[in-house]
Design a protein that fits this description.
- By secondary structure, the chain is of the alpha/beta class.
- 30% of the residues lie in helices and 25% in strands.
- The protein has 11 helices and 22 strands.
- The strands form 4 sheets. Strands 3, 4, 5, 6, 7, 8, 9, 10, 11, 12, 13, 14 and 15 form a 13-stranded mixed beta sheet that branches.
Amino acid sequence: MPQYWDAQFETMPWREVEAYWRQELRRQIDYVRSANEFYRRRLKDGHPELSDIPFLTKEDLRSAQAGAAREHPLGEIQTVPTGEIVQVISSSGTSGRPVYYGLTRNDLACWREALARFFFTAGVRPEDIVVHTTAVPLFAGGDPYFEGMRHIGAMMVWTGGLSTARILETMKYLHCTVLQGTASFDVYLAEQCSRVLGIEPRELGISKVLGGGEPGLGEPAIRQKLKDLWGAATVREIMGLSDVLPGMWAECEEETGMHFCAQRDVAVELVDPASGEVLPWEAGVTGEPVYTTLRREATPVLRYRSRDLVRVEGVGCPCGRTSPKIRCIGRVDDMLIYKAMNVFPSAIRDVLLTYFGESLTGYLQIVKDYPEQVRFDTPIPVDVEVKSLELDLAGLKRNMEQRVRDSLNVRIEVNPVAPGSLERSEYKTRLVRVREGAQRK
């Protein structure tokens, strides 16, 4: 098999990629201006540079769809007649009313090719038998992922919507080699295997584990846990966005960060979440990716703020790909404030699993007193699931609280809980929950 799905773009010098984006942006601006009043209002005359275009947010898109009607069901962001739209994809709606995006036949063809490139980077090959666990076809990780892997030529086994027992039985009977799911569901399936099938998950023959949909696989403790549970040769993190393209970042065989894989279809910038200043793609830089679709016909988005928080791991790679590599370290919207210090829930999880992973199951939750709570003037409550209640819980609690204070300069209040007591999910497992009975403040 070739090393790349699209060698031209995957190995193209980054400056040439950016020159291609400038060329395509001019064409895209002309297109949206001619077809869409929403963008005519937002864009200056002529051909502005990418950094001169105003940011687009999820709230902007929700507002643009608020007045949708039967003849224009996708609202102001719809750029083609309804008769040309052949499929609709939805955001998850976890942060409010879902936003719906349309796809023309050309859009679908672009997505299929882009997602094949994405999954090929992540290691999927025609000889693989892939169990695809996402249950909801309307979501970006449902049908689009299925089509992308099938476009590679892999044997697709879409088990989404089946019970946990049926998924595991199907994996066993069909000798699946690749598991694709959210990071938390990949762990959940492994934990259920011995109970359901009477065998350890490593006996099923899964050699590749792909996980995305939430931060987590960038943390060495979670990655190693998945390798150990499944006996997998490789565990790779993947990431996309329903609003832009379901798959845009994927790890290669080096497993040292996710490459940007969507060069043909999407321009990406890195900006400071607070100031909006464009940042360089340099190792160690932390920022928020901002995306512009270059070829989407039905519902294009220009300078869309992802609200993801990523860290650049490097540029260039022994694999030969030239795009930056990143880790997703959280969501800009998830930031908490302990007194005067900012902290992300994923950072607390990272510290606890890095230093105490041998004593923990890997599940923990920050607990809020009310849904909108961001500020904590007393230590941040954290329910931490331990492997056994026979451990020295008082000592473990004290050590975890001290380690987080030393590492992050914030205080937490650890509440050790029994194994299996925190909620598991067949999609994404919540890292933050609201205390039972809490009221909106």
